[in-house]
């Protein structure tokens, strides 16, 4: 048998490209990592092109369903590798953010390539088992019926319904249904950033909830960072004082962006991304109940500074 690869037809390539954005969204929400998602899509492409000796469309009645099934199962396999990496990760782990660029950015912007699942929701999804998360993402985010999910993950519809029930219970127990209006979120983000970077402790005291929690994901590669979540307003004030000192030295530039569909802020040091800050608000929208700070440079490789 010849080792020469069989060329894949243009039709088969077109089908893959047509559904690539759907696969990106499903896999990213299962993994919380852009880099791992791109690797899974590459594995999916290789599986697709190897099918039927380079004729993947032969015998496939529903290419969309077939491709999603391949991608989901590759993603489930990749979850095991991610879990092993997490065991030696330095400090808290947060998802890799999808950061939208400016108005001139097109479809290549990864933040425009998936359903908008907030960063806070992705953190909650980490509490699910891989199968629970796959079912939740497919059903709650992308609207797949349980019967179709059963075919994708090779489980019975009854088993899928049970997984879906457990996943919803976990998510609703950890994530309030309340979502702040975008204008309220933007105003709160701007108030918080002005106070934090400007070193206005009185303003920070006013906007931070007493039980605020700060998660900082630096992967051991950036300072300031906390090796554990910072709980309580007093500790949060001390933590953000270090950002004020860094910003006061003229070292940080601010860019307001949409991160996983929500208004957030990027901090740049020169031309390089320094950190992403995403806020959680109290139900009344008046105070910050959670702050997610992602400064691990490995998780900011897809971010570029806006042209002035």
Automatic annotation (TrEMBL):
<feature type="domain" description="RNA polymerase sigma-70 region 2">
    <location>
        <begin position="17"/>
        <end position="81"/>
    </location>
</feature>
<feature type="domain" description="SnoaL-like">
    <location>
        <begin position="190"/>
        <end position="271"/>
    </location>
</feature>
<dbReference type="GO" id="GO:0003677">
    <property type="term" value="F:DNA binding"/>
</dbReference>
<dbReference type="GO" id="GO:0016987">
    <property type="term" value="F:sigma factor activity"/>
</dbReference>
<dbReference type="InterPro" id="IPR013324">
    <property type="entry name" value="RNA_pol_sigma_r3/r4-like"/>
</dbReference>
<dbReference type="InterPro" id="IPR013249">
    <property type="entry name" value="RNA_pol_sigma70_r4_t2"/>
</dbReference>
<dbReference type="Pfam" id="PF12680">
    <property type="entry name" value="SnoaL_2"/>
</dbReference>
<dbReference type="Pfam" id="PF04542">
    <property type="entry name" value="Sigma70_r2"/>
</dbReference>
<comment type="subunit">
    <text>Interacts transiently with the RNA polymerase catalytic core formed by RpoA, RpoB, RpoC and RpoZ (2 alpha, 1 beta, 1 beta' and 1 omega subunit) to form the RNA polymerase holoenzyme that can initiate transcription.</text>
</comment>
<keyword id="KW-0804">Transcription</keyword>
<dbReference type="InterPro" id="IPR013325">
    <property type="entry name" value="RNA_pol_sigma_r2"/>
</dbReference>
<dbReference type="GO" id="GO:0006352">
    <property type="term" value="P:DNA-templated transcription initiation"/>
</dbReference>
<dbReference type="InterPro" id="IPR032710">
    <property type="entry name" value="NTF2-like_dom_sf"/>
</dbReference>
<dbReference type="InterPro" id="IPR037401">
    <property type="entry name" value="SnoaL-like"/>
</dbReference>
<dbReference type="InterPro" id="IPR036388">
    <property type="entry name" value="WH-like_DNA-bd_sf"/>
</dbReference>
<dbReference type="InterPro" id="IPR014284">
    <property type="entry name" value="RNA_pol_sigma-70_dom"/>
</dbReference>
<keyword id="KW-0731">Sigma factor</keyword>
<dbReference type="Pfam" id="PF08281">
    <property type="entry name" value="Sigma70_r4_2"/>
</dbReference>
<dbReference type="InterPro" id="IPR007627">
    <property type="entry name" value="RNA_pol_sigma70_r2"/>
</dbReference>
<keyword id="KW-0805">Transcription regulation</keyword>
<feature type="domain" description="RNA polymerase sigma factor 70 region 4 type 2">
    <location>
        <begin position="120"/>
        <end position="170"/>
    </location>
</feature>
<comment type="similarity">
    <text>Belongs to the sigma-70 factor family. ECF subfamily.</text>
</comment>
<dbReference type="InterPro" id="IPR052704">
    <property type="entry name" value="ECF_Sigma-70_Domain"/>
</dbReference>
<protein>
    <submittedName>
        <fullName>RNA polymerase sigma factor SigJ</fullName>
    </submittedName>
</protein>
């Amino acid at each position: 048998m010849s080792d020469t690869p069989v060329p894949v037809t243009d039709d088969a390539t077109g089908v893959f490209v047509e559904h690539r954005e759907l696969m990106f969204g499903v896999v990213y929400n299962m993994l919380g990592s852009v880099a791992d998602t791109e690797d899974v899509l590459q594995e999916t492409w290789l599986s697709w092109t190897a099918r039927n000796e380079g004729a993947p469309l032969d015998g496939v009645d529903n290419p969309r369903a077939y491709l999603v099934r391949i991608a989901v199962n590759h993603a489930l396999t990749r979850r095991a590798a991610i879990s092993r990496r997490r065991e030696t990760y330095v400090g808290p782990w947060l998802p890799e953010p999808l950061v939208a660029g400016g108005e001139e950015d097109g479809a290549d912007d990864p933040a425009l390539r998936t359903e908008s699942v907030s960063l806070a929701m992705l953190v909650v999804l980490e509490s699910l088992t891989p199968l629970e998360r796959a079912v939740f993402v497919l059903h709650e985010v992308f609207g797949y019926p349980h019967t179709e999910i059963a075919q994708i993950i090779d489980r019975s519809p009854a088993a899928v319904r049970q997984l879906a029930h457990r996943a919803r219970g976990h998510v609703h127990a950890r994530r309030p249904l309340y979502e702040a209006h975008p204008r309220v979120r933007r105003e709160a983000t701007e108030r918080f950033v002005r106070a934090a970077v400007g070193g206005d402790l009185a303003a920070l005291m006013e906007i931070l909830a007493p039980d605020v929690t700060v998660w900082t994901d630096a992967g051991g590669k950036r300072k300031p960072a906390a090796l554990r979540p910072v709980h309580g307003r007093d500790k949060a004030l001390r933590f953000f004082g270090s950002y004020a000192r860094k910003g006061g030295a003229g070292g940080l530039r601010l860019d307001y962006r949409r991160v996983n569909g929500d208004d957030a802020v990027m901090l740049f040091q020169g031309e390089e991304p320094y950190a992403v800050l995403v806020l959680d608000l109290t139900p009344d929208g008046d105070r910050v109940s959670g702050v997610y700070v992602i400064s691990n440079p490995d998780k900011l490789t897809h971010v570029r500074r806006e042209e002035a």
